[in-house]
Amino acid sequence: MCGIVGYLGDKQAYPILLRGLKRLEYRGYDSAGIAVLNGDGIEIFKKQGKVVQMETLISDESPKAKLGIGHTRWATHGVPNDVNSHPHYSQSKRIAIIHNGIIENYTSIKEGLLKRGYTFHSDTDTEVLVNLIEDVLINEKVDLAEAVRIALNQVVGAYAIAVIEEGNYDQIVVAKKGSPLVIGLGENEYYIASDATPFIEYTKQVVYLDEEEVAVLSLKNGLEIRTIANQLKTAYVQELALELESIEKGGYDHFMLKEINEQPKSIYDTLRGRLLVDKGTISIGSFVEYEQKFLNADRIIIVACGTSWHAGLVAEYLIEDLARIPVEVEYASEFRYRNPIITERDIVIAVSQSGETADTLSAIQLAKSKGATIFGICNVVGSSIAREAHVGTYTHAGPEIGVASTKAFTAQVTVFTLIALGLARKKGTISEQLFRKLIVELDSMPDKVAQTLKVDAQSKYIASIYKDVPNCLFLGRGINFPVALEGALKLKEISYIHAEGYPAAEMKHGPIALIDEDMPTVVVAIKTEQYEKVVSNIQEIKAREGKIIAIVNEGDSVVSKIADHVIEIPEVDERLSPLLTTIPLQLISYHIAVMRGCHVDQPRNLAKSVTVE
Ligand code: F6R
């Protein structure tokens, strides 16, 4: 939610900030703004809409300055308009701020400031924070960094902020709690951003700020980090393994399409070094130390949101079936507020592409405080959830920029498959023969996914027929029930068509009332033990004149006679099938959204990384 960027160095700041904001737009795109500091003081350019709309504010020449900050917004407090856009000035315009997060106690702080004569122009919590900093600056007679530190001690909530001050040409003050912030260290220059994408062509040396840390960036004095409790910290510099090509569209019309097509590689990368077919073993490096805990666990609780939650549901089928460990899958947002029973013998797995989802982060903090072991499955290296977990593993899907998650989902399912098989083997709950069969098949999944991607043209054709429907139903059974949920989520979030996912057999208990000739149903009808039952469900829909789009195995001769359309995918063991059945659903949603003229990579009201509750 919201992207922040900043620059201090010898180069012109404005073009760097502008490009950085465009890369961060996936985090929010309600409005955008830039503040630069030069001889004229702090100049702010901001506007409702996307970054390109803000650019129209700059006439011929871009503003000259070697220090600046920028923001792309996903509105929380205050509607998206020019005034509520960031950066925000303090009352005297002496300082300016950008902020990603929410100041929960802003009302009480605002009341105090109003009494002290402050006036407010926007409805945002951020304007309250910048005035609080100014108030401390003036009354406590401290410098900017100290004012930020003192002010943050009064704040309840989440923030990644960058603050600049008039006349202070060699300083950006940043701070973080609950929202991500990374500092890039260049040659005589500093970058800051919500993630490293705005500056990877300039430097790969980064420092991730920890919770409740304030950093002062100065070319003269270097980088100084303190906690908000005023404890001096040592900066831990890391080398990023991120390449520029991985965050560009690479010839595709949309990031989403690129990411769908990257799945053979992202699954391969997620398996690499972990699935050792020749040796007949599975080895997840970080797992070893905690293996006994997993093996002795009373149960595994998976917490996640959205698509990652769907991956968790797939994991429930895999882990219970193969490793015979009880699994519960929880929406992180519900789990954290329902006083759950958690013990030291529980393993809590947090699944998150971004590693920054506020609800998931809070859920694991709660579980940690109750003594559970926390295992993180994240895609973004160095993200908050990855760091909060006791142990974990990365999905290696590479940067996912399209707001609708695709390759992260299949990479998460891949990791869970490895975990389930690894645990099953250690526990002796799987026969050697089945283990061998499954690992060989898992090893072939990148190729099978590549083969499945050939259904693109057919998916596009089907999309052209159903692009105008108001509603759509997705059905699946067993391990493909979560795939139906995921298919429905993909369609609704990028095309704004109402869609629901159901276990196929549940259809009779309500949703069948919706079926008529205008209501298409997408059914995962691959060869499984439940195949005949799914065929019966399809018959029931056809008897009510519903339209059927069925995902079937190659050579299917039963469903293809009843369904209106069939999409054939390679046959694999049912346990591995979600990695394939998901693909046509992603493609159908993508093409429908494109045909409806929707903004596929940045759907309305959404943002990639949900760092607010
Ligand atoms: C849907 C989607 C979201 C995310 C959810 C959790 O396509 O992307 O539902 O899956 O916001 O995000 P992460 O995985 O970053 O925790």
SSE layout:
Layout: E1 3-8, H1 13-24, E2 31-38, E3 41-48, H2 51-55, E4 67-73, E5 88-89, E6 95-103, H3 106-115, H4 125-139, H5 144-152, E7 157-165, E8 172-177, E9 182-186, E10 189-193, E11 205-208, E12 213-218, E13 222-227, E14 232-233, E15 238-239, H6 255-261, H7 263-271, E16 275-276, E17 281-282, H8 291-296, E18 299-304, H9 306-323, E19 327-331, H10 332-335, E20 346-352, H11 358-369, E21 373-378, H12 384-388, E22 391-394, H13 407-427, H14 432-443, H15 445-452, H16 456-466, E23 471-476, H17 481-495, E24 498-503, E25 520-524, H18 531-543, E26 547-553, H19 559-562, E27 565-569, H20 578-595
Parallel strand pairs: 18-19, 18-20, 20-21, 21-22, 23-24, 23-25, 25-26, 26-27
Antiparallel strand pairs: 1-4, 1-10, 2-3, 2-4, 5-6, 6-7, 7-8, 8-12, 9-10, 9-11, 11-15, 12-13, 13-14, 16-17
Helix pairs in contact: 3-4, 4-5, 7-13, 7-15, 9-13, 9-17, 13-14, 15-20, 16-20, 17-20
The structure holds fructose -6-phosphate.
Describe the structure.
With about 625 residues, the protein is of the alpha/beta class. It has 3 domains: about 5-245, Glutamine Phosphoribosylpyrophosphate, subunit 1, domain 1 (4-Layer Sandwich), CATH 3.60.20; about 250-445, Glucose-6-phosphate isomerase like protein, domain 1 (Rossmann fold, 3-Layer(aba) Sandwich); about 455-600, Glucose-6-phosphate isomerase like protein, domain 1 (Rossmann fold, 3-Layer(aba) Sandwich), CATH 3.40.50.10490. The chain has 20 helices and 27 strands.
